[in-house]
Amino acid sequence: MQKYILLLASFVLIVSCKKNSESTGNNNGDEEDCVMRAASGSGEIIAAQYIVAFKPAINSRATSRLKLDEISKTVLQKHDINVSALKQSFVGEPGGFIAKISAAEAEVLRHDDVIAAVEPDRVISLGNCFTVVEPRLITWNIKRIGYGNGIGKTAWIIDSGIDFDHPDLTVDQSRSKSFIDGQTSAHDVNGHGTHVAGIIGAKNNEFGVLGVASGASLVALKVLDNDGEGNLSYIIQALGYVNTNAKAGDVVNMSIGAESGSSILDQQVKNTASRGIYFSIAAGNDGELANLSSPGRANGVNIYTVTAVDSLDNFASFSNYGNDVVDYAAPGVRILSTWTNNRYAYASGTSMAAPHVAGLLLLKGRNITSSGVAKNDADGTPDPIAHY
Ligand SMILES: [Ca+2]
Ligand SMILES: [Ca+2]
Ligand SMILES: [Ca+2]
Questions:
Q1: At 230, which CATH number?
Q2: Strand pairing class (251-254; 154-159)
Q3: Alpha-helical segments (H) within the chain
Q4: What percent of the chain has pLDDT over 70?
Q5: In angstroms, rounded to a whole number, what is the distance separating the alpha carbons of residues 337 and 93?
Q6: Is the pLDDT of residue 26 over 50?
Q7: Residue at 161 is within a domain
Q8: Cα of 214 to ligand 1 centre, how many Å?
Q9: Domain count within the chain
Q10: Parallel/antiparallel/unpaired status of strands 303-309 and 369-373
C-alpha cells in the first residue's frame, strides 16, 4: 500500500524545554530529547476523506471556486456519489476538491479521465518545545548569512499562523487566511509560524530581533491549529490560494512537510514556482533522505530545499540530507526569533533554516549566493551555506 504522509514539520527544539528567560542554551542533553519528540509526530490517515486533483485540461476551464464546485459535483454525480460528499474545492495547479468518500469511491474516481490523482487526507503535527528568552537584536544567524531591507516585499508563510499583534512584525492581515475547519482567523497561538515569520522579516527597530529581510510584509496562511496539528488538505488549499494571489518575486515559506510524499502537493509547488514565485522549503528533521518527503523533494526552478547547520557551520544531526534535492544549508540550531504574546524564543529545526533562505530570496531572488559549506554533511557532499 502506498504510504503518503506525515509530517515533519520540523519543529525541533533545542535547548532545554523549560521556559526560562535566563537560559544560555548549553544543555545539549535536552536537545536530543527534543529532536526525538519532533520526529515522532504522526501522520495518520483521516478516515474516509480524500484529496482529488484534476488534470490540467480541467484546471484551465475552472476560472473560479464556484466553477470548480460545479465541475467537482458533476464528477461525483457521474459516479453516483452524493454531491454532499463534496467538502471543499480548491483552486491552483492542480485544482481539485476534498471529499468525504469511501475507499471504493476513491478508487473509482482515480480511474476517471479528468482526475490526475487521489490521495488520502492526513493529519500533520508539530512537536512543541521552545525556550522563551530576552531578545537581542542582531543574532549570530543573521550575521552569518547577511540581511537587508525587506519593506514592500511579500512572504507567504504556510504554517500555524502569525501573531497579528507582535510589535516586531509587519503582518498583512487582509491577505492572511485560515484553512482550518471552523477557524476563521490566521492569528497564531502555537508559536511556530510566528518564529518562522520573525526570521524572515522582524523589523529593523530599537528592540527585539532583526529578520533577514527586515520589515517585509508577512502573510499568514494558517494550516496548523493551536496544538500544531493540521491536515495535508489544508496545505493543498493554502497553495491554491498562493497560486491565485501571489505575484512573481514573492516568496513562499514551507517549514512543514508530508513524509513519504504527496504528488498533488509537489505539483502545486512546481506549477506555482514556474510563475516566478520562489519557494523555500524545510528539508525535514528525521535525519534521513530529504527526497522521501513532500514538498522537500520537489525540484525545479525557483524551488529551494534547505538543510540546517549550527553556529559553527556543522551540519545539524537531525537534518534530512541528499544533494539530489537539497539546494542550500542555513542556520537552524538555537535560533532566536519572535514568539506569541510579544515574546521571543529559541527553537531549532530545518523549520528555522528555511526562512533564512526565504528572506534572502525576498532580497535577491535567484541571485542569492553562498559562503562556506556545511561541515560533516550527512551525505558526504557539503551543502553550500546560503548568503546574501
Ligand atoms: Ca526588531
Ligand atoms: Ca532542489
Ligand atoms: Ca549534502
A1: 3.40.50.200
A2: parallel
A3: 28-39, 56-61, 65-78, 103-110, 140-145, 192-201, 232-245, 263-273, 350-364
A4: 88
A5: 33
A6: no
A7: yes
A8: 8
A9: 1
A10: unpaired
- CA–centroid distance, residue 280 to ligand 2 (Å): 10
Phi, psi of 351 (to 5 degrees): -60, -35
**Among the bound ligands, the one closest to the CA of 138:** 1
Q: Is the pLDDT of residue 52 over 70?
A: yes
User: Mean of the per-residue pLDDT values for the chain?
Assistant: 87
Residue 18: predicted pLDDT = 29
Pull the grid cell for residue 93: 495547479
Tell me how far the alpha carbon of residue 371 lies from the centroid of ligand 3, in angstroms: 15
| pLDDT greater than 50 at residue 149 | yes
Sign of CA dihedral 122, 179, 343, 335: positive
Asked whether the predicted pLDDT for residue 8 surpasses 50, the reply is no
The answer to whether residue 110 sits within a structural domain is no
Q: Write down the pTM of the prediction.
A: 0.86
Question: What is the distance in A from the centroid of ligand 1 to the CA of 343?
Answer: 12
User: Which numbered ligand comes closest to the C-alpha of 169?
Assistant: 1
Least confident of 39-53, 130-144, 200-214, 272-286: 39-53
Q: Which domain, by its residues, includes 184?
A: 28-43+125-387
Report d(CA 337, CA 344) in Å as an integer.
5
Looking at the CA of 202, which ligand is closest?
Answer: 1
pLDDT at 17 over 50: no
